[in-house]
Design goal:
Blueprint lengths: L8 E7 L7 H5 L4 E6 L4 E5 L12 E2 L4 E2 L1 E7 L8 H4 L5 H11 L9 H41 L12 H4 L4 H22 L9 H8 L17 H20 L11 H27 L12 H7 L2 H21 L8 H32 L19 H27 L8 H36 L6 H6 L4 H44 L8 H27 L1 H14 L15 H16 L4 E8 L1 H16 L2 H4 L2 E6 L7 H4 L6 H11 L3 E5 L11 E7 L2 E7 L5 E3 L4 E2 L5 E3 L2 E3 L28 H9 L31
Parallel strand pairs: 1-6, 1-7, 7-8, 8-9, 9-15
Antiparallel strand pairs: 2-3, 3-6, 4-5, 10-11, 11-12, 13-14, 14-15
Helix pairs in contact: 3-4, 3-13, 4-6, 4-8, 4-9, 4-12, 4-13, 6-8, 8-9, 8-11, 8-12, 9-11, 12-13, 13-16, 13-17, 14-16, 14-17, 17-18, 19-20
């Protein structure tokens, strides 16, 4: 531990979690002012009455008070705020498919079968994502080309009577009106995929050079931009334009018929559309070739074929193909059969790819099992490393559901006389069966959970023995805390089970609907489920569109809608390029640059503090700092996480990106300066550096990371001056707090996942992370209580 000198100061750099926050809340002040940043990534400090940056409260250590500067990094503007970012929620299925890529199991070194399986899985993910884009375009075509242009606007109908008959019969009018919304949506998707965050204080060339370095084994080492993203983006746009032309020309199975030169032109355009789609699928399959970067191997031909100029030519030819299709369709037919056929063909191809992906994922997960089989069960990846398959299934079924959910209200608004494709009846059946199964599953889970909880409390079983240590002598708080611990533990232990249930329910509905569709079974006996499916799909689409509308009118609603983006947008574009930009690629380099700026002062020590999702950002930033800083500077950085998912969620959902071994290496590199604030009442955050905890003879014991980087049994937990129990790097906070304490901000009741900075243990953890205080130092006097603790003896539940 470095000795504090007279010029020592601590910079506490805080990073918030999902949903964003206000600058004042982040730095715990009544006013805050920007001191750096570009408006999207804002660095703020507390402000005085003249709006000038003010110093933070001093940090009390065993020796003397140390000056402290409190800063906060605000990144919420990258994921929420304004209708443009709110509409990103419409790309939610694309984002889920992209997240599924990062959930793949790790590939063991020097294992050829695992390496080949990894290449195949990533290629299938890219093809599935490409089909997801094609499905969206096909479903928009059902609404725009079929319902609106072909049926509603055909001459002689009573739909949209404000449009005169002469206009309806005008050449190319209906075709143009039907193709225009599709092309606009494709242009918007292409625009979204081009959005990138500009990194402040970090040269792009330096960042790209760093990404070429071999992986360090620290958390987030693989979170980097993919050089294949521009090529993949072009393939998706080409596919979308080619599918648009293919639908207008009759569909993938049969082209429109015409005589003479018109028939030849339609045939040529139809073949060109199929060729463009085939080239895009082939490119998506081969882009993940790891040998492509070597100039002496075959992959260089693929990189050259998908270079900037070839991509532009491909896009130009695709646009010309759509314009040619418009010229060939002087008058649309009464129906557009290609839309229904394309939706069904794409859906079947997606199902085939998903099944193949799930089957290949089984041996890949088994081969990767050696990397985690020595870990306790509670630290192993969810579903044995197979979690990516159900997440990908949810992405595909939600993508189909969103499109059908929009088509149903549009048909209702235009008129009941319009007809949707026959395949949509089976989509409504899918969601009707899934909705019914979801209700039954919810009832079963709720009943079972309630029965287990009632039985446990009736028998007086203590679910949270740690709470009895934290609230010793305060039986009223113990009763409240015990119930909150039970629910929080249930949510952490079974949250991924709920995702598996959702995926299973949707897959069962999809299988049933597919079987009935293939066998052409009439849906008369399934009418109840189809009607319920219409209600579920309508509710799904209306709720999503209403949320986007409210986001435009009420900024607070837009911030709440950003929860989805906050979680999904952490991951760079890999499987699907048409997703919002990854904010981690901006936040992490800017945090690293800010810390390096502070460390230029030799007396400064920096503690990175992250809450919830922010804990992942600061952990990745700390890992980058350990890679870049010299040894004498690494000793002046610390890490503080609060309400973190760095043990129970991220290593288990993303075992290849945030594996347990990388966290152990990070803890060893920080040499005991990683502190984690935990509450047993927090359903979203939990322990980070310890596991297998138990209470024995009035002591809290456990296994975790040691200061030397090893793992093993830890010394019994020590009690802090404010009642917190410190086991290894975890600080277990009493919730409700043991205060109030005079001179400190007070929060009553159960805090759960919020307001960790209100606990006085926060300052002590910052001092330890800064290397100014030892955990096992002689215990300082306890802070005075404003109210005395209860001393009457009661049982765990608070009974007399």
């Amino acid at each position: 531990m470095l000795i504090a000198g007279p010029d020592t100061r601590v910079v506490e750099l805080r990073v918030h979690g999902v949903q964003g926050t206000t600058p004042q809340t982040l730095v715990d002040a009544v006013a805050a002012v920007d001191v750096a940043g570009d408006g999207l990534g804002r660095i703020v400090r507390p402000a005085d009455r003249l709006r000038r940056p003010a110093p933070g409260p001093v940090l009390q250590t065993e020796g003397r008070p140390i000056p402290r500067v409190v800063e906060g990094y605000l990144w919420g503007g990258m994921t929420s705020g304004g209708v443009a970012k709110a509409t990103w929620a419409l790309l939610f299925p694309f984002s889920i498919a992209n997240v599924a890529h990062w959930m793949l199991p790790p590939v063991p070194e020097r294992n050829l079968p695992a390496h080949l399986l990894g290449i195949g899985l990533r290629s299938l993910l890219r093809v599935f994502a490409l089909l997801l884009t094609a499905l969206l375009v096909a479903q928009i075509s059902v609404v725009s080309l079929d319902l609106l242009a072909a049926q509603c606007l055909r001459p002689g109908t009573a739909c949209l009577t404000s449009i005169p008959a002469d206009v309806r019969t005008f050449p190319w009018f209906r075709t143009f009106l039907g193709l225009l919304p599709i092309v606009v949506v494709i242009a918007v998707m292409r625009r979204v995929s081009h959005v990138e965050w500009r990194i402040e204080r970090k040269a792009i060339a330096d960042a790209e050079e760093q990404e070429k370095q071999p992986a360090s084994g620290l958390p987030g080492a693989h979170v980097a931009t993919d050089p294949d993203t521009p090529a993949l983006r072009s393939l998706h746009v080409v596919t979308a334009l080619a599918v648009t032309a293919l639908i207008a020309l009759g569909g993938p199975l049969k082209q429109l018929t015409a005589s003479g030169g018109m028939g030849v032109a339609i045939t040529v355009a139809w073949i060109v559309s199929l060729v463009f789609i085939g080239v895009s699928v082939l490119g998506a399959l081969l882009l993940d070739d790891p040998t492509g970067g070597a100039p002496h191997r075959g992959g260089r031909w693929l990189r050259a074929a998908l270079g900037r100029k070839p991509r532009r030519l491909l896009l130009v030819f695709s646009v010309l193909l759509v314009l040619t299709t418009l010229g060939l369709q002087e008058q649309l037919p009464l129906r557009v059969p290609g839309a229904d056929v394309t939706v069904q063909v794409v859906a079947l191809l997606m199902a085939f790819v998903l099944v193949l992906f799930g089957l290949m994922l089984i041996p890949a997960a088994l081969l990767a099992r050696g990397t985690w089989k020595s870990l306790p069960r509670e630290l192993r990846p969810w579903a044995g490393g197979w979690f990516s398959a159900p997440v990908l299934a949810i992405a595909g079924l939600l993508g189909g559901g969103f499109g059908a959910g929009v088509a149903l209200p549009v048909r209702k608004a235009l008129g009941d006389g319009l007809r949707l494709p026959a395949g949509y009846e089976y989509i409504t059946l899918l969601w009707g069966v899934a909705g019914a199964l979801a209700l039954l599953s919810t009832f079963a889970v709720a009943s079972f959970t309630g029965a287990v909880r009632w039985r446990a409390f009736r028998k007086g079983k203590v679910w949270a023995r740690e709470a009895s240590l934290l609230h010793s002598g305060r039986m009223r708080d113990l009763r409240t805390a015990t119930r909150a611990w039970w629910w929080a533990r249930w949510e952490r232990n079974h949250g991924h089970h709920m995702i598996l249930i959702v995926a299973s329910v949707l897959v069962v509905g999809a299988v049933l609907a597919t079987v009935l569709r293939v066998q052409n079974v009439p849906l008369g006996s399934w009418a109840v489920f189809s009607a319920f499916g219409v209600f579920v799909l309508g509710l799904l689409a209306v709720s999503l569109l209403r949320a986007v509308y409210l986001a435009a009118r009420q900024p607070e609603s837009g911030r709440r809608l950003g929860i989805i983006a906050d979680i999904a947008q952490f991951w760079p574009r890999e499987a699907h390029p048409i997703v919002p930009p990854c904010y981690a690629l901006k936040v992490v380099p800017e945090l690293v640059a800010r810390v390096q700026d502070h460390l230029r002062d030799p007396g400064t020590r920096v503690v990175l503090c992250g809450h919830s999702q922010g804990s992942l950002l600061v952990a990745v930033a700390a890992a980058r700092l350990l890679e870049e800083l010299p040894a004498h500077d690494r000793e002046r950085i610390g890490l503080l996480t609060a309400g973190s998912q760095l043990q129970w969620a991220y290593p288990r959902a993303f075992p290849a990106v945030v594996p347990h071994a990388s966290l152990a290496r990070l803890a060893g590199g920080l040499d005991g300066r990683w502190r984690a604030l935990c509450r047993g009442t927090d359903p979203l955050g939990g322990a980070v550096t310890t596991w297998r905890r138990q209470v024995f003879d009035g002591m809290l014991l456990g296994v975790g990371y040691r200061e030397d980087g090893s793992e093993g049994a830890l010394a019994p937990a020590l009690r802090g001056p404010t009642g917190a129990l410190v086991l290894g790097g975890d600080h277990w906070l009493p919730d409700p707090q043991r205060g109030p304490f005079p001179g400190r901000r007070w929060r009553s009741g159960v805090s759960a996942h919020s307001d960790y900075t209100s606990d006085p243990e926060w300052d002590r953890a910052v001092a330890i992370a800064a290397g100014l205080l030892q955990v096992d130092a002689p215990e300082s006097p306890s802070l005075p209580f404003a109210r005395k603790p209860e001393t009457r003896s009661r049982d765990v539940l608070g009974g007399s």
